[in-house]
Amino acid sequence: xxxxxxxxxxxxxxxxxxxxxxxxxxxxxxxxxxxxxxxxxxxxxxxxxxxxxxxxxxxxxxxxxxxxxxxxxxxxxxxxxxxxxxxxxxxxxxxxxxxxxxxxxxxxxxxxxxxxxxxxxxxxxxxxxxxxxxxxxxxxxxxxxxxxxxxxxxxxxxxxxxxxxxxxxxxxxxxxxxxxxxxxxxxxxxxxxxxxxxxxxxxxxxxxxxxxxxxxxxxxxxxxxxxxxxxxxxxxx
Length: 237
Fold this sequence. Notes:
By secondary structure, the chain is mainly α. It has helices at 4-20, 29-50, 59-79, 82-100, 107-126, 129-136, 138-143, 159-174, 179-199, 208-216, 220-236; strands spanning 145-150, 153-158. The N and C termini lie far apart (40 Å).
């Protein structure tokens, strides 16, 4: 069952913050980065944690919900209702990722993805299409990213990052890994990536390398034991 009261409470708190953030006092760059990393990003990521029981729904239902959220995001974006579009994109990536997880029959497949996607993301951000979009097509980047506002502006996270966040989180739940520890590591990885990007004046860094570590490191001992057991079982067949 869904934790209805925590969900409503979180929705109200996040909704109020997004509504009044422009009127809050400015606190300086690093204070706002700390605020984002420790509170705002984990709060937004909290929706996926609280809604996680829905990840066990039939794949067609999650795909339909994800498609509905995606349609809502497009409609609201065209209509200029950007805050609703923002969270509709979050819903779309979350439910589509949960539908996509159906294709992963083994935990080892998720681990393999966690090792591969950081390299793809890094190439895209530094030399590929993401770099081109960020540098020359800001409108397109805004449409394909989620906004985290602070009093002095906003920072953005690509929609694929939200997709893999939800995918890894649901995989942790499905395969019996450390749920809350991994959720925290995944959530904090986004803020750490943003802080490194600002400290190094990189302009933008791929989020999936640290996100993948946020999935792998808290569960490293369990993953190692399970993968060894799988190899041993295959050798015995």
